């Protein structure tokens, strides 16, 4: 259901008109309706009385609507809308810039951002104007103001802490930007919020909410993660009703340690995230961005389904799938290391060995109830690791050491948005082939077109009877699945009905 070919092109008004009148949840986050008479912009699911078509205009993102002088609706809350899938269609450089902007708590200057991208600041401004129609600063300020609004309404964090969490180093600057976007002060919004009236007293945990476009198969995601959880680091708490199952994980982010607990509120189309830990309010923005990738919340399941069901094999699998999502990773470095461990062994064996890495080299800290929580080690903790005591071959241990060194030296760029460039970086290291590179890109970096063509499970699924396909045949078949080959790979694995394979570490 394409709305526009690029972000700098207005969405199709006929599609938007029909979607907003129907309050179609499938379009939530895909466009915003701005009302010229009230100067307010809304999500397509807004419960307010629909305005006349002559009084509206449409925008692809909330940032564009705010930059045009409209203020967000306080009823449907554009701050709570799912992310725009259209932003995955902009140029590679712009996408890398957006990823870098969202990975940091504080704003970077245009010069700093351009330097990290290896281009001039003038060229970066030109790219943003061409592909998004806004400057990097406009995008940053609007996204952070929307995020701050959600914290004002959903938490009891003091306004000063919310300003810091949203990335503003100055309360005065925060107040100025927020008032420019919302036409009211943060204090006024806090005074109006239901959270203030509820009087929760600021009791931990902090809670944030992450919306998505249905359909969303929460049980399938947790089943996938549940087979790969690391003791002490993460856990899936199964419930009698799979929709009530929860995901837990310890984390360290920008120097803050904590525990997060994720539950599904299917009736509201969102995830509820409870965050435990002193000082964790400061890292809520990058934490939210990581979780959106982990659970693939911004995917457009209907568009993906519509594209892939043209293949008879995938169409058959899609009949039993209520919304395919690409399980992501909390940390790209962690996942890449786990992918290397998973070469040519089973999922269970790879998880066991990864657990040894965590227990031998990770650090522990006290959880909210005094329990011991374990952090998966980062590249600094593994700088001098030998890996000879975790149950891998000498060659595999050497590959792990080389990978850690390459990460520390900057040879591996986990902010890379181009699939071919990332895979080239990875396969330049000894002991890492196309399978590991593509599987890491697929899960560790959430690249939708990654495709581990030599995976045994994929070759069996595409085979004819007892004869499995060849990687060359798999790549040829997958050409028609672009740009969603990673989702097709998931469907192929599902088609095996959990049949164990010797090679796949999915």
Summarize it:
This protein is an alpha+beta fold and 506 residues long.
Structure description:
The protein has a five-stranded antiparallel sheet with strand order 5-9-8-7-6. The protein has a four-stranded mixed sheet with strand order 3-1-2-4. It has a two-stranded antiparallel sheet with strand order 10-11. The protein has helices at residues 13-22, 62-67, 92-103, 110-117, 121-131, 136-154, 159-165, 171-182, 186-192, 194-198, 218-226, 284-294, 301-308, 312-318, 332-341, 347-361, 394-408, 419-427, 434-444, 456-461, 471-478, 485-495, and strands at 32-35, 40-42, 56-59, 71-72, 206-211, 234-237, 246-253, 256-265, 270-276, 364-366, 372-374. It has 506 residues and is of the alpha+beta class. The model is unreliable at 4-8, 195-203 and 498-505 (pLDDT under 50). Among the domains are: 13-75, DNA Methylphosphotriester Repair Domain, CATH 3.40.10.10; 206-298, DNA-3-methyladenine glycosylase AlkA, N-terminal domain (TATA-Binding Protein), CATH 3.30.310.20; 332-495, Endonuclease III, domain 1 (Orthogonal Bundle), CATH 1.10.340. It is built from 22 helices and eleven strands. Helix content is 43%, strand content 11%. Helix 6 crosses helix 8, helix 15 (332-341) packs antiparallel against helix 17 (394-408) and helix 15 runs antiparallel to helix 19 (434-444).
Strand arrangement across the biggest beta sheet: 5-9-8-7-6
CATH superfamily of the domain at 332-495: Hypothetical protein, domain 2
Largest sheet: 5 strands, antiparallel
Count the strands? 11
Output mean pLDDT: 89
- Rg over CA atoms, rounded to whole Å, is 23 Å
Proportion in helices = 40-55%
CATH class of the domain at 332-495: Mainly Alpha
CATH architecture designation of the domain at 332-495: Orthogonal Bundle
Strand fraction band?
5-15%
Quote the CATH topology of the domain at 332-495: Endonuclease III, domain 1
Instruction: Find the structural class using helix and strand composition.
Output: alpha+beta
Helical run tally: 22
Span between N and C termini?
A: 30 Å
Low-confidence stretches: 4-8, 195-203, 498-505
């Amino acid at each position: 259901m394409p709305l526009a070919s690029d972000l700098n092109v207005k969405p199709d008004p006929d599609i938007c008109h029909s979607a907003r009148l129907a309050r179609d949840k499938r379009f939530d986050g895909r466009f915003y309706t701005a009302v010229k008479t009230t100067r307010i912009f809304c999500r397509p699911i807004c419960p307010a009385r629909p305005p006349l078509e002559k009084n509206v205009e449409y925008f692809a993102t909330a940032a564009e609507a705010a930059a045009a002088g409209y203020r967000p609706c306080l009823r449907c809350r554009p701050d709570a809308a799912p992310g725009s899938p259209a932003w995955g269609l902009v140029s590679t450089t712009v996408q890398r810039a957006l990823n870098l902007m969202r990975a940091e708590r504080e704003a970077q200057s245009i010069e700093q951002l351009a330097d990290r991208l290896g281009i001039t600041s003038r060229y970066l401004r030109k790219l943003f104007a061409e592909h998004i129609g806004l400057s990097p600063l406009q995008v940053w300020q609007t996204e952070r103001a929307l995020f701050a609004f959600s914290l004002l309404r959903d938490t009891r964090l003091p306004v000063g802490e919310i300003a810091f969490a949203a990335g503003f180093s100055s309360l005065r600057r925060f107040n100025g930007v927020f008032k420019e976007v919302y036409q009211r002060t943060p204090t006024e919004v806090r005074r109006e919020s239901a959270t203030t009236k509820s009087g929760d007293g600021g009791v931990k945990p902090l809670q944030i909410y992450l919306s998505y476009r249905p359909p969303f198969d929460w049980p399938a995601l947790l089943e996938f993660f549940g087979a790969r959880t690391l003791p002490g680091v993460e856990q899936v708490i199964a419930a009698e009703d799979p929709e009530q199952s929860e995901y837990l994980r310890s984390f360290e982010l920008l120097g803050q340690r904590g525990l997060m607990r994720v539950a599904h509120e299917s009736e509201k189309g969102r995830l509820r995230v409870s965050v435990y830990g002193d000082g964790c309010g400061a890292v809520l923005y990058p934490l939210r961005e990581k979780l959106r990738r982990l659970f693939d919340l911004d995917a457009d399941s209907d568009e993906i389904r519509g594209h892939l069901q043209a293949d008879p094999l995938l169409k058959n699998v899609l009949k039993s799938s209520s919304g395919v999502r690409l399980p992501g990773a909390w940390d790209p470095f962690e996942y890449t290391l786990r992918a290397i461990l998973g070469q040519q062994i089973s999922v269970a064996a790879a998880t066991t060995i990864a657990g040894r890495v965590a227990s031998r080299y990770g650090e522990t800290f006290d959880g909210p109830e005094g329990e011991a929580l374990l952090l998966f080690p980062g590249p600094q903790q593994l700088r001098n690791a030998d890996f000879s005591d975790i149950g891998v071959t000498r060659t595999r241990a050497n590959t792990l050491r080389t990978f850690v060194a390459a990460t520390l030296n900057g040879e591996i760029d986990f902010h890379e948005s181009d699939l071919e460039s990332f895979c080239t970086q990875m396969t330049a290291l000894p002991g890492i082939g196309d399978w590991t590179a593509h599987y890491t890109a697929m899960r560790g970096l959430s690249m939708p077109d990654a495709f581990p063509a030599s995976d045994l499970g994929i070759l069996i699924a595409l085979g004819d009877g007892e004869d499995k396909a060849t990687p060359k045949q798999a790549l040829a078949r997958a050409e028609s699945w672009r740009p969603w080959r990673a989702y097709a790979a998931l469907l192929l694995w599902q088609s095996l009905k959990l049949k164990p394979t010797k090679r796949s570490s999915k």
